[in-house]
Specification:
3 domains; Cog5; Conserved oligomeric Golgi complex subunit 5
């Protein structure tokens, strides 16, 4: 085929038919026009010239017609040749063409089959989706039913447990105590002294605590069977709290660690540990303030100094009968410092028990449940408030009558010695109470309790007045009398008195 095309392209007459802009009509018209022109020119020439012979004219016409026919014949031959080449090419590649046609048919059939399969797959997917959706809804409904059954079972178990606990609380002997007996127990604070009763109170407190945990859900509390028994059980809990608080106060006053621990444990079960511990310290502070105020009140000092308080000795400026008067004053001042010592030991003992007791569930000490890590200890708060009270009380004595004030100022050196003695006694007593256990606690907490500022080891279980700061707080609280004593000595030129006074801390 390529050979035929190249031959036709090389032919001047036939090559024009292979050009891209070939116009067959124009080519045919041009050929006919040229042949007509040649025919007209030939006729005119024959008319102007003479005919030589008839054979010559006949040959010329024959030559003219053979040129046109020759072109047509060449064109027919070229077409036939092209047809023959095409026929030969088709004959040679017929099998290939048939294969390609059959492949196209097969491919088309395969595409149609795939389309049909895709449609079937889509239908299957939609069917599966609908089935899955139905099963999912059924499963969701079944799960919800089972969940409702489970919740109902939980509620039933909780109700049964609540009834069991309420029966335990309402059937306790604590509920059988009449009002008179309860008042006696609250006033005496002796209800925890018996082991059997203490165990009963702890058991009832645990039951009340579990009941309160159950009724934290408002929907559970709204159940009629629960709502009917809550008032009675909560009343028992309130009475139990009141009794245990009174017992705790009595145990604190008696410095009984065992009874304090029993009371704190029951209060922990009742959820009243932090509040009661703070209130107990406040009660101790208020009691200390009341007793200290009464101990050095002007009426008390005047009553303890006899009837000669207003008689003054001109030689030393003190009241006449000063031996009796000073002894009465001194008894009052000793009582004052004994009150401080006694109440400080009470708070220290309470704090020690709180540090020793641990909640088994959380592993935290009771003290950690009461105070935040950045809050001062109970004793530190008590000691700071106590020293402030002492300062205010001594400052108020400066407004007493001149006779009483003069004796107080004159007794300042002995008062300071008494304060130092009380500090030493408290330190010795609490250090011996801590003993080996205190040393162990101190060593165990040494790496954990490091002061952020000075790097000093701090331990909450430390003896009273074990640090210079605590000792200084109490001694500095006597500053109003110290200043008045110095002024009095300077004004009266009392050299012997100032020689015995330690420097103010």
């Amino acid at each position: 085929m390529e050979t035929v095309v190249r031959e036709l392209q090389s032919d001047a007459q036939l090559g024009v038919f292979l050009s891209s802009n070939c116009n067959v009509n124009a080519i045919a018209s041009a050929i006919v026009a040229r042949e007509s022109t040649l025919h007209n020119v030939s006729g005119s020439s024959r008319r102007r010239a003479s005919f030589t012979t008839n054979d010559t004219a006949t040959n010329e016409d024959s030559d003219g017609l053979s040129q046109l026919e020759q072109f047509v014949e060449r064109l027919d031959n070229a077409v036939q040749r092209i047809d023959r080449v095409i026929s030969e090419h088709i004959g040679e590649h017929y099998a290939t063409l048939l294969d390609q046609v059959s492949s196209v048919d097969e491919l088309q059939d395969h595409v149609m089959s795939v389309q049909s399969s895709v449609r079937q797959m889509k239908q299957s997917v939609h069917l599966v989706e609908s089935q899955v959706r139905e099963q999912h809804e059924e499963l969701r409904d079944a799960i919800q039913r089972y969940r409702n059954v489970e919740q109902c079972g939980d509620i039933v178990r909780q109700v049964l447990r609540f009834q069991q606990l309420s029966d335990r609380v309402l059937g306790s002997e604590l509920n059988q105590v009449d009002a008179t007996s309860m008042e006696v127990m609250v006033e005496t604070g002796s209800s925890l002294m018996e082991d059997a009763r203490q165990n009963e109170m702890a058991s009832v407190a645990l039951a009340i605590r579990e009941m309160e945990m159950l009724v934290q859900d408002e929907r559970f509390e709204e159940l009629s069977v629960v709502r009917a028994k809550l008032p009675a059980t909560r009343k028992i809990g309130t009475n139990l709290k009141r009794e245990v608080r009174a017992a705790l106060r009595s145990s604190i006053e008696n410095l009984s660690q065992a009874n304090v621990g029993d009371a704190l444990q029951i209060l922990f079960y009742l959820g009243d540990l932090a509040t009661t511990a703070q209130f107990s310290v406040n009660d101790v502070i208020q009691e200390l303030e009341r007793k200290c105020t009464a101990a050095i009140s002007e009426e008390k000092l005047v009553g303890s100094s006899g009837t000669n308080l207003n008689g003054l000795n001109s030689s030393n400026g003190l009241p006449s009968g000063s031996i009796v008067q000073k002894s009465g004053f001194w008894e009052a001042l000793q009582e004052f410092f004994d009150v401080i010592r006694m109440h400080a030991l009470q708070v220290w003992n309470l704090q020690r028990v709180l540090l020793k007791m641990v909640d088994s569930a959380s592993g935290k000490k009771y003290m950690d449940l009461i105070l935040a890590p950045d809050e001062p200890s109970l004793f530190a708060t008590f000691w700071e408030v106590t020293c402030a009270i002492v300062r205010e009380l001594f400052a108020s004595t400066l407004s007493y009558s001149a006779a009483v004030k003069s004796v107080l100022i004159a007794e300042y050196p002995r008062m300071r010695e008494q304060a130092t003695r009380v500090l030493n006694e408290m330190y010795t007593a609490t250090r011996q109470s801590a003993g080996a256990e205190f040393i162990t606690d101190l060593l165990n907490t040494a790496t954990e309790a490091i002061d952020a500022k000075g790097g000093a080891i701090e331990s909450e279980i430390v003896p009273i007045a074990g640090s210079v700061a605590e000792r200084t707080q109490l001694l500095d609280s006597m500053a109003p009398l110290y200043d008045a004593f110095i002024d009095s000595c300077l004004s009266q030129d009392c050299e012997p008195y100032t020689a015995h006074v330690s420097p103010k801390l």
